[in-house]
Amino acid sequence: MSDQQQGDPRHLETLDRDLARYSNLEMATSYVSRPIVGPSIAFVFIVLAGLAAAMIFDQANDSLIVVIAACFGAYMALNIGANDVANNMGPAVGANALTMGGAIAIAVVFESAGALLAGGDVVSTIAKGIIAPESMGDAQTFMWAMLAALLSAALWVNLATWVGAPVSTTHSVVGGVMGAGIASAGLAAVSWSTMGAIAASWVISPVLGGLVAAGFLWLIKSRIIYQDDKIAAARKWVPILVGIMAGAFAAYLALKGIKKIIKIDMSTALLIGAAIGVATWAIMIPTIRKQSEGLENRNKSLKVLFGIPLVVSAALLSFAHGANDVANAVGPLAAIVQASQSGDFTHAISIPIWVMVIGAFGISFGLFLFGPKLIRMVGSQITKLNPMRAYCVALSAAITVIVASWLGLPVSSTHIAVGGVFGVGFFREWDAERRIKKARLAMPDRPAMATEERRRRKLVRRSHFMTIIAAWIITVPAAAILSAIIFLGIYTIMI
Fold first, then answer.
1. 331-378 pLDDT tens trace
2. What global pTM score does this model have?
3. Which residues are listed as membrane-spanning (predicted)?
């Protein structure tokens, strides 16, 4: 190329266009490949789980079924991380108390710690008595049923995550076990009283969670936010609220989170919670006084005082979730392992450590790769959260589980947390309406707000509300139907 051509402006324009094309191609390639990265890493993890099971069960009976079950268990754990963990981290992220990266890092550490250190070492026979195991006849049929239950639950949670609906992974497993049980042994095999209690939890869990969260938000608004001297009110009430949170979580973890280490009854757990709550209250009085020095008398200043308690509560919720829900989710895999080793499928199921490792690591990968979508949904797309509102949701989750355990009510941690978000949002709507009516009584000449404007100011997005409620209602039947179809497919192939 000559010097004259190199200096020609037309040549320079052509070069710029070519470079722009390369740049656009690079951007397009990056955009197209980004969605492939997550599924690729997930696929590698699933394959590694299967290889690990193959090495552990080399030359053993039914080793192929165990390998397939390990792959399905890894797939299920990935979906738990993508869907279920959002309920613990969503409020803290929505309130800007945690960044998305910080939330994922905390959840990965505490979910894994909960699963590995305090994970339930025994799962009741066949997902807490959903079906009578002896009705299945033999261990082979039982393993096929658990395989179908595991895959159907994972597929359903995957679909719910894609739609953007936080659902109960435990209910998904329950539905899968029920569907496979009906397909293999008929309707009589199902414990319908247990299923009735689970159906009742669809209503009990979110309503209890919503009422408790709304009650604490009312307390914060009436005793702190609506006071003339907000900082003075916060110095009095924030230590009390943090003490209640510490006591509630101490009792919750004593009751639910450390059962593998030591079994504690309800009265002992409440005493432990009360002692830790009082100690925390005493410690927080000087801490909040010092933290509030120099703060302006405005609502924005109050957010600072709730930031750290909110982060701590999110971490503790993740630990408790890892300790409880992971074991339930990998229960069918543990049942298959036990049945293949000993042929026993009618007694309580012990969960081997390698199965818990698959659950813990799967949750971590699932959260890291696919979790942000549901975290944003729970944290900011249902209703607007700030640290005070998010704190109410976290506190509601711990207290509601304790109350439900005391009353013997079956509840879902997923439904409680999301119900708490709804409760906060609907309370804010009610409170806003109340204040508008009060202002209208004080100023009767003020023109009324148009109906369309009132609808636009709704603080809970109705579309998300209806999507989530619908997903909750159909989780058990959808997982059951899918599981029955998968079981019949496996049965047809194997017989």
1. 888 888 888 877 766 666 677 888 888 888 888 888 888 888 888 877
2. 0.81
3. 36-57, 63-81, 93-110, 142-165, 172-192, 198-220, 232-255, 261-283, 304-323, 351-370, 390-407, 465-494
Four-residue CA torsion sign, 483, 489, 494, 495: positive
Classify 124 in phi/psi space as left (phi over 0), alpha (psi -120 to 50) or beta.
beta
User: Does residue 147 contact residue 303 with C-beta atoms inside 8 Å?
Assistant: no
Closest CA to 152 of 493, 449, 461, 488: 488
What is the C-alpha separation between 109 and 322, in angstroms, rounded? 10
pLDDT tens by residue, 50-107: 998 888 876 666 688 889 999 999 999 899 888 877 777 888 888 888 888 888 888 8
Half-sphere exposure of 494 (CA within 13 A, CB side): 15
Rounded CA gap, 480 and 173, in Å?
Answer: 9
Terminal-residue alpha carbon distance, the chain: 74
pLDDT surpasses 90 at 218: yes
Q: CA 208, 214, 215: angle at the middle one, nearest 5?
A: 90
CA angle 404, 405, 410 (to 5 degrees): 65
Closest of 128, 209, 199, 201 to residue 476, by C-alpha: 199
Collapsed DSSP state (helix, strand, coil) of residue 292: coil
The residue type found at 308 is I
Angle at 92 between CA 86 and CA 98, to 5 degrees: 105
Question: Domain boundaries in the chain?
Answer: 38-494
Q: Decide if 424 contacts 217 (C-beta within 8 A).
A: yes
Q: Does the CA dihedral 289-293-295-297 come out positive or negative?
A: positive
SS3 56: helix
Residue 84 DSSP class? T
* CA–CA separation, 111 and 364 (whole Å): 8
Distance of CA 484 to the CA centre of its chain: 26
